[in-house]
Amino acid sequence: MKTEPNILRQKLTKKEGWISILFNTFLFAIKYFAGVSSGSLALIADAWHTLSDSLSSVFVLISARYSFKKPDKEHPFGHGRFELITSIFIGILLILIAFNFIKEGIVKFYNHEEAQFGWLAITATVLSIVMKEGLAQYAFWAYRKTKSETLKADGWHHRSDAISSVVILVGILVGSYLWWIDAALSIVVAFFLLYAAYEIIRNSISGILGEEASSETILQIKTLANQVAGIEVHAHHVHLHNYVTHQEVTFHIRLNNHLNIYEAHEITSSIEKAIREQLNIEATIHIDPLIK
Fold it and tell me: If residue 135 lies in a helix (H) or strand (E), which one and from where to where?
């Protein structure tokens, strides 16, 4: 059964994906036309960077569809980590595009090619900066609401495009003085892409491998366990398992040796219920004897 946060997560993920595809396809057409008209490899590279955002948003929509599938026999903990796999695909896509533009920039520099920028190139670039930063802000807002790594990755994808457009705008303004600026900027844009890809892939792999629970989360669990039990239960061996669409925690507590099984069960069940309701985490508790 879906919890309310997951319904919001899926809704915002789908909405961000469709908005991104719509605006990025529009920007790609404008920037590509301006790049071809001016002979600017950097602007054409930036246009393909923008189109890659549309492709990454397709992955976002795929993630929204499959990450929220209910647990089944083969995947008893759900399909939430599909979202992290999707983010890795976005990162790989960025790397492939980046290396292509590094290669094209080197060729253009070697052939001593320069671009002829005009008002169309300036207009397309300024429009790109404004719209892409707007998309980034929306994606980051949705990420803060949902904690979706895919939305965060898409936000950085938008942000990297906005930054690369700022660099290109500077290049356009000084292009008449430096013949090599377009070739150089296409390589600079490629490194923006590589950095964004590194951050996306690193964070996603870390999530798949498993990360230590934050000290704040551990403190919340220990405090809540003591409050519910009404005694110090010495919660320890706290392990948090993040399945993206939900989280599970396992830990040990120590209870008085003289409690019977029913009494110990009642205490652990009450603690698990409190953690579920207040922290939205499913808990499994192991009981150790309190040795005095």
Answer: helix 119-146
> pLDDT means per 10 residues in the chain (292 residues)?
59 81 88 83 76 71 69 69 77 81 79 72 88 89 79 78 78 74 78 81 80 82 91 88 78 90 92 90 89 64
The answer to whether residues 248 and 218 touch, using CB atoms and an 8 Å cutoff, is no
Superfamily of segment(s) 4-209: Cation efflux protein transmembrane domain (1.20.1510.10)
C-alpha distance from residue 247 to each of 81, 94, 146, 185, 223 (Å): 11, 30, 13, 43, 18
Place of tokens 């939305």: 151
Query: Is there a contact between 132 and 46 (Cβ–Cβ < 8 Å)?
Result: no
Here the tokens at position 132 are: 């892409």
Does the pTM surpass 0.85? The reply is no
